[in-house]
Amino acid sequence: MEISKRITAFIFTLFIAGLFTLPGAYAADYTMKIGSATSTRFAASGVMNLVKEALEQATYGQVKVEIYPAGQLGGEKVLIEKTAAGDIQATPSSAPVAMTLNAKMGTVALPFVLNTRERLDKFYKSDLGKEMLNCLADKGLLGFDYIPWGPCAYLTTKPIAKFDDVKKIRFRVTDSPIWLDTFKALGVSPVIIPFPDAYSALQRGVTEGADNPPETLEASKFYEVAKYYTQITPFFSQTVFFVNAKWFKSLPPDLQKITAEVIQECCTAARTIEEYHQDRALAMMVKDHGVKVTVLPSEEVEKFRQATKPVVTKYMKDIGEAYVRKVFDLVGYKY
């Protein structure tokens, strides 16, 4: 109910803005091209639709927004490079890609540190979160806000009832050092496979598990070839909405203020939508496709956390130990 109210309120705000828009009163003075590697059916990319509608309304058309979803302008790495160069003006980019430009962006991928929505929100609203969002300013990128892809849990072809069971499963893993190190710390031999081939790999038995949010698993129909969902979340997959710094600073002060506020409000709405998507996707997989959900006992979850502490230690050195320890204190992670 609360989620529906928040979405309704946001849409109503856009509607009211539309009532007061004066068509043709202004010509577009600035163009904001936003590129994403994925479809707008996912909240982390769908935020582009919200930004387009709200920003054009709020600026009376002075800022025209063009969106290019589903990899039309390239993959994530290409898009963040294009945004930094000013070829496009914005992109929602994931932590594994962004951390190749600055290790501090990997803070959100430290296993079991920021692994709940409450911890994520507390972090991003803090000065520590703002510091991370701005850590790519020297690369020409301003981070405005974040949108989760969702909690990374395990969908497997055989059940996981305890910590030791995970070691017997071949997981498909994205080509990210911190992801790989996390699985290796669990005793898994991960298999790097591009996401478009992940379904086929499960189907053919090349892999036996995937670590993706429910929305991604449901959208890709992974439930057809794997029926066991283990509700454990080492971290949230997520994106940060980056804007080209030079373009943003070229806007007049009033448009800078409007643009920043609109993007942040749209990211807030996208987070609400994303949470709804995850809950609904998991419910659909259980009800309609026979997926079985396992919630591990707290003592088994603690074994996962302890096993991955060396990964936290390794990456906190790159990120900055003093900074990471402040994050621990902020969210209550026991190192």
Topology, please?
Blueprint: H1 2-19, E1 30-35, H2 43-58, E2 63-68, H3 76-85, E3 90-94, H4 95-98, H5 117-125, H6 127-133, E4 141-151, E5 153-156, E6 171-173, H7 177-185, E7 191-192, H8 198-204, E8 209-212, H9 214-219, E9 228-230, E10 236-244, H10 245-250, H11 253-289, E11 292-294, H12 298-307, H13 309-319, H14 321-331
Account of the protein in words:
- This protein has 335 residues and is α/β, with parallel strands linked by helices.
- It has 2 domains: 2-94 and 136-148 and 239-278, Bacterial extracellular solute-binding protein, family 7 (D-Maltodextrin-Binding Protein, domain 2), CATH 3.40.190.170; 153-234 and 281-330, Bacterial extracellular solute-binding protein, family 7 (D-Maltodextrin-Binding Protein, domain 2, 3-Layer(aba) Sandwich).
- It is 48% helix and 17% strand.
- The strands form 3 sheets. It has a 6-stranded mixed beta sheet, with helices on both faces. It has a 3-stranded antiparallel beta sheet with strand order 3-10-4, sandwiched between helices. It has a two-stranded parallel ribbon with strand order 1-2.
- α13 packs across α14.
